[in-house]
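This section describes the prediction task in plain terms. A model, or a person checking by hand, is given the sequence of a single protein chain and must write out its three-dimensional structure as a string of tokens. No templates, partner chains or ligands are provided. The sample shown here is typical of the held-out split.
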Amino acid sequence: MQRRHLLQSAAALAVPLLGPLGAAHAQSFPTRPIKLVIAFPAGGPTDITMRSLADNASKILGQPVIVENKPGAGGTLPAQQLQTAAPDGYTLAQIPLGVFRLPYTTKISWDPVKDIAYVLNVTGYAFGLVVPADSPLKTWTHFVAWAKANPGKLSYGSTGTMTSPHLTMELIAQKLGLDLLHVPYKGSADLMQSILGGNIMAAADSTGFAPQVEAGKLRVLNTWGEQRLAKFPDAPTLKELGLDLVQNSPFGIGAPRDTPPAVVKRLHDAFKQAMEQDNYKTALARYDMVPMYMSSAGYTKFAQDTFLREKALVDKLGLAKPS
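The expected answer:
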């Protein structure tokens, strides 16, 4: 009994020490480079815009923020990497929307809501569907008619299986009774190379296709936001085409679960300041993206809500893993 009392007293004395130590760690953080893992390959819109953000954050934090590309698995590999990383703030990850649907389609041992410390949301993708400039599919009407006349033969690429472009196209196909041939790629750079090489007939993507459209190599058939994109004013939205669908895809930065709150706050404050700088806004504008800030608390709530919403989408498309 006396031994238990002594242990309890020791534990009680130890607890207050954790607070000052944690605060001291946060004050000195960071003392070495930070790794930011992103979900898509080098050269695409995510890579280009996140490198701009990382450069800005490096100057604010006083340590390099090094971008590491980890493409594949529908954009979920960086979030998976957080599950084995030390919760010290030195490993961060981009969190695309696909992370929130992962448990419904794949057997995993971690929870996207509970097992990630959400730092902040930074932006979101604008999406659309493009075809080669010389394609006979001049409009969305042509696309639908050709697909109906040739079931299973109209090929389109996306940035990966179970990504937002893939699921949105499958939802469109379901609504219109189309049978499309989906070809997944690791990211926008690979996808653009393939469509320009004539390997696929169409590409569903974030507006990483913007430079190719502006160069006259691709044509936009539709965009997926609430309103038309300023960069492509002639391209109708899905809603204008009679499809009651809006797809935008916020993404931000996460850290491992149990990262000290003071470290999360230090990262939040630095990256928020980084995303307010003009060079980051200019990099986003190249792809018709804008800063889309959510605080740590707001981003955590977004994760909870999105997790539930994605389950409904996966169930509707019949893509849930067998129970």
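For orientation: The domain at 127-223 is CATH 3.40.190.10 (D-Maltodextrin-Binding Protein; domain 2).
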